[in-house]
Amino acid sequence: MPEAFIVDAVRTPVGKRGGALAGVHSADLAAHSIAALVERTGVDPGAVDDVILGCCDTIGSQAGDVARTAWLVAGLPDHVPGVTIDRQCGSSQQAVHFAAQGVMSGTQDLVVAGGVQNMSAIPISAAMVVGQQYGFSTPFAESPGWLERYGDQEVSQFRSAEMIAERWDLSRSDLEAYALASHERARAAIAEGRFDREVVPVDLPDGTSFAVDQCPRDTSLEKMAALEPLAPGGRITAAVASQICDASSALLVASEAALTTYDLTPRARVVHLSVTGDDPVWMLTGPIRATHRALERAGLTVDDIDLFECNEAFASVVLAWMAETGAPHEKVNVNGGGIALGHPIGATGTRIMATLLNELERTGGRYGLQTMCEGGGQANVTIIERL
């Protein structure tokens, strides 16, 4: 079977809610990463077979197939198509999977995969809220079929995060200690320039250049302890949850033939890609089963993996995942995660992959594994090998 290779990966800095990127149109935000990717790789844009972007809540500035629009906004050839996909939080990681599968099938040679989300402009779950406002439909958990199967119970990421904390006996102090480490790691990574290779600065209308992630905080356990829980008597607070933010990201996937034809140098090889479903009510436990399955299918063990990225939707998600997989914290989210860096839903998958790739190169590691929890109780897993 043909193999798929990652040529390069870039991302914008992550803007905090209402921050530097809040006023940037989603198509322009995505176009920025795409254009930077094309420029950095030197690839002939006319040779690209497809553009696949992840994005959730595709209304307003994110409607109308933003992948196609972003490519055109970037000034790139009309004949290259684009498609926008939604696998919730894993949307852009799934974009990479579809891109790699196209290459591995032998039907494509060059595919741009990435994602975009302006959560300041289009709030999370906006599409569902708008639908209800206009009386078009009820939420998914109120469909007759859903109610027959799962009953009338709350289905939300917040409830899931709380259920996970309770089931795995994770105290509020455990969650806050993990969150603090995420911020400390992210701030150290920024100070040391670890993100410099992946971040492409954005020129803003006011003439300034936005080049550094805005979300990491100089916080403390004392500050976190003062916050009210999201549910009365609960353990989950805003401090242990991923931040709402804005960003885009993109990477180039190529076949071996394309590497030769277009004189491209690969940075990594795709070793494994899979997606697995789990209980949709528990929702955020998906990465546990998905990681076990991925390692088994890849013929690898936890000890074979040099670096892990498990998206920090909530601290409880990653702590439970580490407990069940045996992944050590010193190898997990070493430059911080969504709690510190933010979780721009549609863009997070390829944002994380850019970070994973660069950190493998910085540390000399061989294998990196990436996974994330997703709405509906799903989880993608990608394993890459540094070249």
Automatic annotation (TrEMBL):
EC id = 2.3.1.9
Leader peptide range in chain numbering: none
InterPro entries reported for this sequence:
Thiolase, Thiolase-like, Thiolase_C, Thiolase_CS, Thiolase_N
Keyword annotations from UniProtKB, A to Z: Acyltransferase, Transferase
From the UniProt record, which GO molecular function terms apply?
acetyl-CoA C-acetyltransferase activity
Domain Thiolase N-terminal residue range list: 5-256
Q: Does the keyword Acyltransferase apply?
A: yes
Q: Which intervals hold domain Thiolase C-terminal?
A: 265-386
CDD domains assigned: thiolase
Catalytic residues as annotated in Swiss-Prot or TrEMBL? 89, 343, 373
Q: Does the keyword Calcium apply?
A: no
Q: Which family does it belong to?
A: Belongs to the thiolase-like superfamily. Thiolase family.
PANTHER family referenced in this protein's UniProt entry, alphabetically: ACETYL-COA C-ACYLTRANSFERASE, BLR7806 PROTEIN
Q: What is this protein called?
A: Acetyl-CoA C-acetyltransferase
The organism is Nocardioides anomalus
